[in-house]
Amino acid sequence: METLRAITNIYLLFSLTFLSIRFTLAANATLIKPKPLKLKLHHPDTVFYKPDDTIEDRANRFLNASIDLLSYLFEKAGGGDLEYDARGDLVTDKAYNYASFFVNFSIGDPPFSQLALMDTASDLIWVDCKSLTAFDHSDSRTFAKYTCLDHVNVPCDTCSSANECMFTIRYATGGSSEGVLATERFTFESSDEGITIVNDVVFGCSRKISNTRKLMGVFGLATHRPGYSIVKKMGNKLSYCIGNLYDKDYKYNQISLGEGTFLDGAATPLTNYRGLYHVDLEGISLGDKRLDIDPNLFKRSTSYGKDGEAIDTGAPYTWLVSEAFYVLRAEIAKVTDGLGLTRQYDPHVWGLCYSGTRNIARDLPDFPLMTFHLGNGADLVLDTTSMFYQFSARMFCLAFGPSGQKGYDYFLVIGVLAQQNHNIAYDLIGKKLYIQKIECSLLDED
Ligand SMILES: *[C@@H]1O[C@H](CO)[C@@H](O)[C@H](O)[C@H]1NC(C)=O
Ligand SMILES: *[C@@H]1O[C@H](CO)[C@@H](O)[C@H](O)[C@H]1NC(C)=O
Ligand SMILES: *[C@@H]1O[C@H](CO)[C@@H](O)[C@H](O)[C@H]1NC(C)=O
């Protein structure tokens, strides 16, 4: 019976044209509802299980990954050599862990099962083609290499002596991945148990991976080089929902690609700047109180060249322009002090930490919600588990930092913790980001 169901559930997505025909029909008759590709996101702890981890180890990785990400995004937004590179700092041994989710799919024919790190800041999908347990393209009937002569939309970084179209991705923290650009058949097992086959996906088949020892691939979801982008190929719509970053057993973290992707909630203007997705933050409230922060502090200004509000999934922390951060911190301290909580010394100096009982929601009952007011009236609403993180068994801290503290002032990044329990949907044609506060499990009920 299982086999039968799998067969009836095969959706062949040949091309964008085919997708748009399906969509046109749907717009009128609703006989055929466009069906997005929904994929489960695998929690990093289910990929790299570390039974000996203490809460402190984890909190340190959490912070280290967030600092690395800040420096990487800052470099990327400022141009220079890193402009077109995939994200690297997250995938070095020190920082791949804890904040980034993995996508599972199969590559080639016969299909080879592959895990790759989801990355909203890079556009290329690449997989390990070198190590013994990796994908071996010589076994696949559907593998096709690009040569330097036939690339049109896919720029080669270099040409090999055999005229192969080569890519090189250099990482901010020193690692790299190099190999040949090719196309392959990708097979996805959707979270609704359907099977989707996508032919001719552009990907990098990596022959040399340095300083990223444990990484087996990256699943890029940015779109700045259209020829590389699976999001473009699937119809320019993307969404993700991450319910709980701490719970490796939470089953409903997911992404969705293509027509039929759930675009609901309030829409805010979205810009794609040097491969980073940006939104306009206009203000922050705690409870009903709008904080007294000059809105110009949030404006992206070309005079700095490097600032703006990137929304990203690579790390947990949210980084604010320092002046805004200190206003926010003072307001939070006022509320927590009023609740009688005991302040603790913050090892990172700038932050705000309190004694706790290992349950942030219980330690902060009736704490007001925080709202990020984005352009056009869209709100990102944070409860205490999206504002604070567990630093140790007896202490929790604010999961925000001042970007100036790390030398990247005027740069703002909205991190994963702040995005928990929201469906975040990118409409790249309409240039809008849809934000809806939702329990991710509800997205499985169609
Ligand atoms: C749907 O198709 C019918 C004819 O089959 C047409 O009369 C109607 O206007 C169409 N509706 C829309 C919304 O396009
Ligand atoms: C985090 O970074 C600090 C300073 O660079 C380093 O000492 C520490 O070992 C790192 N911790 C983890 C868990 O990577
Ligand atoms: C990935 O999918 C394959 C095929 O469906 C499955 O055999 C494998 O166990 C999955 N891997 C993980 C980590 O879930």
TrEMBL record:
It comes from the Eukaryota. This is Uncharacterized protein.
